[in-house]
Amino acid sequence: MAVVPPGASSKFRPPKPVGQWVPRTRLTDVLRADTGWRLALIHAPAGFGKSTLAAQWMDLLASQGRTTVWLSLDRDDNNTVWFLSHLLEAIGRAKAGFDDELQQLLEERPDDAERYVIPALINAIDEGGQDIVIALDDWHLVTDKRTLNVTERLLDAGGTHLSFIITSRTRSGLPLGRLMVRNQLVEVDAVSLRFDQAESQSFLVDLNRLDLGGEDVASLYRTTEGWIAALQLVSLSLRDHSEASAFIERLSGGHQSIGEYLAENVFNTLEPDVLNFLLTSSVPERLCAGLASALSGVEQGQSMLEQVQARDLFLQPLDEDGTWYRYHHLFEGYLRRRLDRDYPGRVRELHLTAAHWYSDNGFPSDAVDHALAAGDIDFAVEIVESRAMWLVEHSSMATLLALVGKIPADRVPGQARLQMAIAWANTLLHLAAEAQGALDQAETVMPSDATLSDDDRFELGVESLVVQSCIDMYGDNVSRIGELDEKCFAQAGRLRPWIVSVGANLSTFKKIHDGQYELGLEQQLWANRFHDQVSGPFSNVYGHCFAGLAAYALLDMDQVEKQFALAVELGRRHAGRHSHAARLAGAMMGQLLYERGALDKAERLLEETHELGSEGGVVDFMISTFATLARIKELRGDSSKAAEILDEGDAVADSLGLSRLKLVINLERVQLGLKSRTFQPGLAPVPVVHGTTGQRLEGLAETSYQIFLTTQIRSALADAAPADGTTPEHLATVEKARYLLDRAAAYTGPRAELHARILLAAALQQAGLHSEAEETLLPALNTCCRLDLVRPVLDGGVACSELVRSISEELRLGTANYDYHPNLGSFLSLLIRLDLNTAVNGGTSRGLSGGRQLHGGPRRAFVPEPALSQREQTILLLIDKGRSNREIALELHLGINTVKWYLKNLFSSLGVSGRQACVDEARRRDLLKQA
Prior knowledge:
The chain is mainly alpha-helical. It contains 44 helices and seven strands.
């Protein structure tokens, strides 16, 4: 899960009364009278009972069945990401099952929170269908323009199920004019908040049990003007006065500051130990027993807090179990002024004590604030550095950068560790320029940073290479990764597991694109012990994805499925479904599901990854996201959406300088029959020499070159009509396709060879070389049948469709004179039915059913859908009779897994997801005889 910006649970609970509250019935009636409000604003200076009234209102709304959410604001909420994170946690605490995975999305898209998180939050509330009221207490502490804009958007676009109660000392920062015009505003000011005489009577006499007559109460009401904080101080002062009327008369004579006068009066009655406790514990914004003990030197901190609360000394509990407290703002201010006046030398010492306590107990934001208040910038830096890499490992980059933002700007550049952490955060946020700048600064100051030991400098030096290689990898550059073998892995015992874990992933990525797939898998096996020592999931998810990519190149599909599934599960379990890690893994799983024909599941996963845009991981992930998702949209018949997605991919390639991604986008435009754009890949010319493979290009250049060759071949097939006889143009395309197949087989593994073989078969068929085309395609068909891969053949084009139909017919007639997989006949029928099903459901057929062609040439005659086999018909008829899978297996003398295999193929080919639906669809297409 996401790392919520540290804060006490008390932020999410309204204040609780020490005894009882004075019921504010007249103000509650204001809220009841207006049922259409979107915002209820309570604004007044300190000491007027704003929070108390908001808490009473929330109790009322909860009794009406609304979900009530409380968030006490502080200065940290001027960081918009932290404000939203606190808000999401507050909603999650109040509403079980709320989509708290938005926290991780927020951490990973901090600059795009308004674009992604706010709409998702509003949608989640709307879809929940339950009214939610959010109370924001102390709104005046928020001054950041971006946070103000976010709240304004929630108020404007939050829908009918979302409303707010806001307490503040001012009316600023809210769209009050628009809300007022729309009759969506309820407003309570200081005049309304003052106790009237009856409420003053209830507070002083009924609740505080003071022996006061009506004239005394009336005099106090006139003197304090119903100011609630002053009345509270009066009640404390009068407890020890035998002559209440005389005290009240002196008070009503007028004093420069009623609050100061009454506070002094209260203080004069306190024991020295209680006074010391009040003064020393006033430094932090909130208190718990451990922090109070550390500040005051009193061992029994909890006991003292409860004593102060019992004496009504303005200490408010912030949670039901009495863990966290805070002083009333008015009283807190007085205590701090008194402390600064009487003990000026202790203030810095107390801030440092608070900083150490907060740091030791996992509250780095508060710790940094107090360290800075004490003027100890070095300690503030130390706090951030100690927490930095933990935040990086948990993909909490936004939280880290916000903590760094608290450090004075002139101190950040000279800290090597801090600069390295900033480089990591920006690298994982795909901010290459910012990452490079921080990394360069870290390397510059490393030799002169006096806080570093020789071991520190060694580790930071290796870490610098890993960060640089990571920046390069996201830019699709593997030139420096080879140095890791000597500088990182040979010294793994001297390095933090995170450095070795990420380094191993980088090395695996390079090995994949060097064609060293087995070595890549071995690298990940070696790295597992380091992945397991890293606290967050991000590096481990990448490791599984890269292992899956290596296995994919080898067509080890069991390993592919295992690795991608582990990546998805790990990302979702540790970081949430919406997390960056889970979405990247989803791109890889989506690619696999697409090739196996599970378009709905693939589309859902790829849509989620598509939201990442330019932050969609390495180029291999982006290829799945943009190219494969565009294919699915084209199959759905949505050519405009397919083109839009490819345009997005093209823009990302341009903005990040990703030439390999741009090559693939160009290929997809040709593949889908969309208008292609001229693109020079910047590769050195490699002549096509018949009968020779040629040298392998270095690293990613070989992959890019093969993509470029594929584009040229696809373009030639799209531009040329099928031949009545073999022409030089067709032969030139065939030779280029042979050359591609040779290079793929030699340099880029079985998967690339499979796709190149299908392309060569299409070129041979279009050239009129039918027999050789069949002979070329058959090994690919057997492989796809064995591995349950349907899309590689279906995406082969019209020429491949002709070959599938002809081979299917030969198998049906028994005239095939070649070896083939025993299930090939059923597999070919599945391919034809799948393609027809796409056309039946309004999508774009790639040729097997005779739909619109994507690669040029005249339309082929429509070929009827192949009939179901006898076995398939028998199974469907037994399903129609209500037989279970086990009963069907027993009756037909088959294994139960065999029955499931038949049903899986039937579900896929007929486009259904249920047993009876399968029977009904087969009958609708006249594929099933009546029983």
